[in-house]
Fold these 3 entries.
Entry 1:
Amino acid sequence: MSATHSPHHGHHGHFQLHLPRVRVHWPAVPHTRRPHLLGELVLGGALFAAYLFVDSFGSASRTAAARSHGEHVLQLEQWLHVDVEHGLNNWLAARPGLMTTANYEYATTYLISAALLLVITYVWTPRLYRQARNSFILLNLLAFACFAVLPVMPPRMLPGFIDTVATGGTVGSWGSPIVADANQLAAMPSLHMAWALWVSVMLARMAHRQWLQVVSAAHVGVTLYVVLATANHYVLDVLGAAVVVGVAVAVTEWWDRGRPGDRLPTSDAFFLDVEAPGNAQNVGGLALLGGAPSYAQIRDNLAEHLDVLPHFADRLAGAQTHRWVPAGPIDWSHHLVEVTLPEGTDLDSFVGELTGAALPRDRPLWRVWLIRGLGDRVAFCIVMHHCIADGIGAVAKLLHILAPPYQLPVPDRPGPTLLRRGGGVIQGLAQLATDGKPAAVLPAGGPRRGFATIDVPLAAVQQVARSHRMRVTELLLAATGIALAEVDPVLASACDDRLRVSVPVMLRAPGVGSDDGGNLTGAVIVDAPARATSIEDVRDEVCRLSAALRTPTRALASRWVMSSALRAVPHGGRRWFARTVYGRKYFQAIVSNMPGPDQAFTLSGCPLLRVHPILPPAPGIPLTIGALSWNGSLGITVVTDADVLDARAFADALQERVLQTRRADDDGAEMALR
């Protein structure tokens, strides 16, 4: 199946959608949110600019003051009997080969070790990376402040010392021609020692391998010897380095204690804010397995893939500003539950009851049920909170635990430029402002959910859509309105014969997958005719009303509001906004059509026979429909407000409508042949 839906190839999407790459990742690399690389590079550039700014203070009087300060430091060391720089410097200068080696060590290893530490933490331990980055920035700013207020000339520039850089001809070392413009009056504190100590402190927090700690300690010892023997620093400079590192790390840890973990993006926290009793915001999937895997097999499968399932090992912290923090060991008795389908209960109703319950927020926000009692088959049901993933993100997570490894193709084309995206947001905001509200606000129902699934051949649905010159999403919208009018004409009449539908649109840059988690969706409002008629009778109207789906501006605008604009709003305002716009005041149904993989899979050795999506309703709306293509089938899940609309009756009417349309088309073709 192509990752880009196109009407020219009979695909069933209504917009161009870049599906997530589902890769086989090196297990040691966790998949979680990381700071944007460009932003981190900008921070690094700003830090270097601050260093250059301090360096620009040079003047004759400043040089004289630095010389005087250096002499005073040396006198204080002599009084303390710690002035070992002379002896070390003379011994090293008498050994040219070792001297040159020391100069290169001074010029390179502090840079290499710090850069490696930042890269390693960015890739392998993103949470530690934030602490490492923040403490690194702070220790450097503290050092720059010292350089600005108290310039100190290094010993090698004072009488009686040998300048090993000048005599050793070292390329790239401090004072050599290649860095001649570097600040040479920055002895106190020693940044070389500070960086080496900082690397050692950070490694102690991320690594438990003893050999790595030994290597780090050796690097600190070598750096200590080199900075003194090359006469680039005083002993007291080293103490100053220890002070700035200690202060920077302590302040950063104090700051992090008050703000633990990774902050939820506002687009994810949105679904925490709209959740209310009786309206759990859980997404996921229901798969029927052609076999009966054991509890241990499924548990081991999930445990093996936890590192590529973002936030499956985290819990929420913070009452208003939600953050992800480590949850500790997984309580498998809670997260993986083995149940037997009660006698006389159908699977759909049972799954609807299980998945409609709110997930406890003091644990990782996901659960899996193995449902037995289906003969030689087992149902695998997984849900996660909507703040972890959107619909297609939940599909990507399911693919992680299936075999064989699968990667959906992504079109090789550049995404929109920043200017075009900005223009689209502005245009979309104007369009959203003119969309208005539905003709009627439906009365609120109750907390009971109806849940029903149907499974239809994907090729048949695509053929029907082509016969009507429609996309599959347009066909689903038309069939939804007609089925509603047939099953509950009173409800259709209350909608003024026009059902206002929110259609989620996945907004993913080409080549960017959803396996980092989170919500990357916008929404487009479409009015679907709700009349008891034929698909052909409403075809033109549906295609005209759904034209907004073919341009991304509304989706871009709604995404911008959720992910960017709401950042500037206090939590109370965000909560009010979410509960105001996401519900029956603005739309009456959700229809989500999601493309999936086009091949067979197994879960712990058992084939997946059919798969259905699980989507939560918005507060107060009577109807939610999720459609997912999977290995030649279109699995459709219907979730309703059970006090307003019967889920099974509606699902049957929807299925009958689609199949009848196909049969009517076939009959017409047979009549034409006759």
Note: The longest strand covers residues 366-374.
Entry 2:
Amino acid sequence: MLAGFHDIFWETVHPEIDEGDMEGRANAISWFDTTGAFAAKQAPFTGGEGYSFIDWEDSKTFDIPDNLETLATEDQARYAQLKAQAENERRVTAEMWRKEKAATRRASCEKVNFTLEECWEAFNALNKVTEEKYDRNQTPGLSTLRKSLEDIHGQVKKLLEEKRQEEPDESDVEESESADGEGSADGAAVGRAGGGPAGPIQNRKDALKRLADVADFFQKTEPHSPVSYLVQRAVKWGHMPLESWLQDVIKDETILYQLRQTLGFNTASGDPNAQTNQG
């Protein structure tokens, strides 16, 4: 939205430019840089209690051993004080974070990762338009928000990788088994040839990898073209379980409920229309 305001309403959007002075408008972007960065770190990305990046940072600070009795007296006192602080301030400990990770499902991780990649697209669009519109000595920085997104996305990617291993797609399991046979020999030949992938597509992962390469190519050679973003979206959807994809694509709860019924998904939450009528 901010990128759109700059791109479409540059001449009239508030704060207005005063005789070439862009300071007021640049200050608004700088405020968004710091405020948005903090808000992003407060946003939940786990699927249990809904812990945030700030909670993850707390879990590193409040990493308290289970058996304090085995420690030296000084260490016991230090960890006991840390434990009391965590309880009084309701901070997330390392043990709480481990339980939260275990309770998080792959589908929720896929959805958060997809949302973050869309955030990156929006961030890059805003960063691009500010570099184009502002004078060099008045360009507002977005480094704080960039660092925040990098930190959060790094943790989400790590968690998602774990969940993909814990909850692999059935097709991935089948492809992994078949890859030990004839597919492995072809793959080795392709690898020795050097360069990018060649020959027939080996499996689902190979197909998604090639799509990602296509998106990278268009992003580098035709940055203004929508092709790269459309292909990237296809790759993201390719990594999402069906139910998570449906929730992301279909915003109408009634249509989503009817489709879930047709596909035989769990509809224990009830018909949204019925819940509305009861209300």
Note: The CA atoms of residues 44 and 52 lie 4 Å apart.
Entry 3:
Amino acid sequence: MANLYQEWSLEQDQMLWEYRNEPVSTIAARLGRGLRGVETRLAKLKDPSSNAYMRLFSDDRALSDENGKKPKFVPASEVLRRIRWDASLTSHDFSILYYDRVEDEVLEVPFDAPNTSIKGKATTMIDALPEHRIKGIKYKEQVVWDRDRRLDLVFSGPGIARVMESYDEWKQARDAEEEANHKRQAEVSCRLQSALGIERFTELKELSRDIQTTAQREDNMLLMMEVEKYVQTALTLFRQAREDPSTSPVPSLIAMNDYEALDQLSEIVALLPDTQLKPVILTEVWRAMKKVEGKPVENQPKELPEIDEADLVETFVRGSGPGGQKVNKTSNRVSLLHVPTGLRVECQDTRSLQQNRKIARKRLRLKLDEYLNGSQSRTSLAAQKAAAKKLKSKARSRSRQKLKREANNDPASETLEDGEPSF
């Protein structure tokens, strides 16, 4: 079954390039594209001889300035200061996206929202929030500053005045894109129904509906297992259609192998309305595709393991440490014991007992992840990434020093390979 072709716009290429260092499954979820299509397009954008590369980097909005250096990224504090004091801007039109370490997700609050959760004397959220926790800033519904993407439309690019003038055009384009996604979802669904047959396609729809319902349950502790089961069951439906093509209205549309079947599944999953669930399913589909293809899966962290409350022993003890009576008079220190593994964590980060309970559970999940996955746990992968980054930084520093000494004809340029001078 051939995939439906959808032309790549310049804006999509720019977004794909901005997110090029993220997992393919995450990019596919953001763009509403199939996994194989994203992987193929990204390879073209990295090929200087391709038309896609030339179109992207010949545009006026290329990713570097005329000197070949990235433009300086304006920090969040400067953007917030301008919104607050610029008379041409209305603060009510802006909102802040910040990382909440208790809920472990990015939340959105109005620019002038009062501070109700962060301790201290600050009365507003923008004054109380540490700058490193601010992830993005929105003008109405449009993101105008994004830390991860290094996007700044307030000071750089067209500027915030132009963004405000063209907001209606942007919203119309965004609505048109959503409508196109709905249309594409209908087209993909129609082709899948023609390939699988009505009975199997109906079963696939019910599976998709069930997994979305499961993901919405706050007490669900086995989402990853359910997602894995969903992908394998969906793959079984494609295999049944391939083994018995007589039940398919259009047998020529049936996927020829498991790899094609998983790619088709990724196309319909990428168009699901649940933005939190899409990357989770696509990550599992991506792993299955690489397994079928016989290639090693990229070193990317798995979802944190969930914890069954029945396996926990929770105790509350008297606080200790600096802070006087406000710390030592209340039993707000949380101690969690995971009975099956014997792992124990404690938390006394805040004066709020409920927040300490949430933080303790997050720490236990990280510790359990390290216990179960070892070198593939989030903590280990983060440490490996930091170590590799440090080695690259040292190598660049040694290279710069060597070039500088050679340029100055310094006899001390003869050094050992590890950067230490030879005596």
Note: The chain has four domains: 10-57, 76-156, 174-293, 303-399.
